[in-house]
Amino acid sequence: MRYGAHRTVRYLFLFLLLHIPAIVEAQETTIQAHQELEIWNDSDLDEMVADERFDFRLGYGNFALSTTFLIHQPSDADRLDPNLYGDPFEGLRKRMLEARVGSAVAQIGHVYSTLARGVGLQIIENQPVDFDNAVDGFRARWDEERYQIELLAGGNAFDEKEIYVKAASFGTAALSDLHLSYHAVQVDSTDDPAGRPRGRDRIHGGDFEWSSMWGDLFAAYLVRDYIHPDENQREYPQGHAGYGVCNIFWGPLSLSFEGADFLRYKWAYSQGTPIPIRQHATTLLTRGSHVANFRLEDERGYQAEALLGLLDGVLAVTLNHSASETHDEELPFFESYGDLQWHPNPDLTITLRASESEETIQAANHETFFERLTYGGNIYQPVTDTWSVEIDFETQGVQEQNLSVSSYTFPIETRDNLATFNLYHAPNLAFAVTHEWTNDAREKKDEWTFAEMNFQFMERHQLSLGFGSFRGGQLCSGGICRPLAPFTGLRLNWQTVF
After folding, report:
1. Which residues pair with 247 in a beta bridge?
2. Which residues contact 321 (CB under 8 A, 6 or more apart)?
């Protein structure tokens, strides 16, 4: 029945796709397209990976058709790590047909949805971290001034069909500034490749959102009930997710408070759920971020941030503190971060930043403690009307201790340093050189240098060419992290917007 429903969606989509040329005759249409070609040639591995992505959208009145065509070709798929580079692929990656009538929208094909800001359901594409958990199915949403209704049903769009999701959401504006919502999600999983049963997850709960000229408040609480497919093992303790964020605006001062409590809340579409950990933009701070180690199955935490503007925007100070731990107070984490942005004149910008963090993580059969002290800064200075320079520096001292042998071994102490020089020519040229060095004896190399040049030409085209080596680490975006492998060689990226 499930597979038959998916075939029906595909047949309907194919029928509409074939008949669109006959339908679109007299009325005006809108066409949007974007292509991106990326080639990595790794000289250390003597291998190459090529990716071509073409996104196309055709709009006609109340209807829209969007598709994504993808070519992914590692030169030696058996040799390259499939967890980093994936299997070869070429063909239509995604397709979706949309119809809008007034405040209602219906979609079939590859659809996405976010409920309770991602706490209730998180079906998204996050291109910076190559994350996409689209559902192949149906989505409908109706938005009125006081009511919102959303329905979704389908199965995982990629790989073998193993996960089926049904979701319903109802929201109402109880008062002019207060919005209440209720969400219900059911996820059914078939047997995994090893034959182990997956069972059923039921998630339900609500959220409220309030806003005014002084700030806003959002809070959500949902519970997770897991039903084992074996009737003799169906009694499982309930899980939950509590999340809230409050923003206060008072003249030049902005305050933000965020908290979360998760227990047994890791399930198929929970990845990317908002967590109360600051996500950084600099390389070394991101590499040591706790975001990748946050556990939805058992963790609670908070963060508080203050942003203060002084002297009519000449100075801006940001202070942030975040902390989390398991419910039994094990595996603690904290980070204190601050930065100062100074504008001595309208053109010059100087930024100073500092961070201290400590965390204990579970590593294999032992626990490992990390302490990181990070300092850095940034200077941006226009030279002429079209030329400007930017210099960024960051240094991080790391102390790492295997707690199972801490009574008779010293901790490992390392220092990593990273400097970047950027040269800009408005509006079509940017050049950057990044150099990193370390005293970590466990690394095969102790220095890495990577240069990259970006050209924008003919208004719609952008070409980036990079060469050299970089250390790797991790990249985080929207609560999702992915590892970056070390690289030495040539990288090319070409994008065109039609």
Report:
1. 216, 256
2. 303, 304, 305, 334, 335, 336, 337
Gyration radius (Cα) of the chain, Å: 25
CA-to-CA separations, 396 to 329, 393, 415, in angstroms, rounded:
27, 10, 6
Q: Are 107 and 82 in contact (CB under 8 A)?
A: no
Torsion of CA 151, 154, 159, 160, to 10 degrees: 150
Q: Is the pTM here over 0.70, yes or no? A: yes
How confident is the model at residue 241, as a pLDDT? 97
What type of residue sits at position 423? L
User: Residues 434-456: pLDDT tens digits?
Assistant: 999 999 999 989 999 999 999 99
Return the structure tokens found at 10: 């595909």
- Whether the CB-CB separation of 436 and 447 falls below 8 Å is answered with yes
Contact status, residue 473 vs residue 484, Cβ threshold 8 Å? yes
For residue 6, the number of C-alpha atoms closer than 13 Å in the C-beta half-sphere is: 16
Tokens of 425: 């020519």
Q: Which residues contact 265 (CB under 8 A, 6 or more apart)?
A: 224, 239, 240, 241, 273, 296, 297
Q: What is the mean pLDDT of residues 75-90?
A: 70
pLDDT at 213: 87
Question: Cβ distance 110 to 137 under 8 Å?
Answer: no
- The answer to whether the peptide bond before residue 427 is cis (omega within 30 degrees of 0) is yes
CA distance 234 to 202: 13
Q: How many helices (H) and strands (E) does the chain have?
A: 3, 30
- Residue 59 clears pLDDT 50, i.e. is over it: yes
**pLDDT reported for residue 197:** 64
Q: Which secondary structure element, helix H or strand E, spans residue 346, and what is its range? A: none
Give the up-direction half-sphere exposure of residue 15: CA atoms within 13 A in the CB hemisphere. 7
User: Tokens 């030329």 label which residue?
Assistant: 387
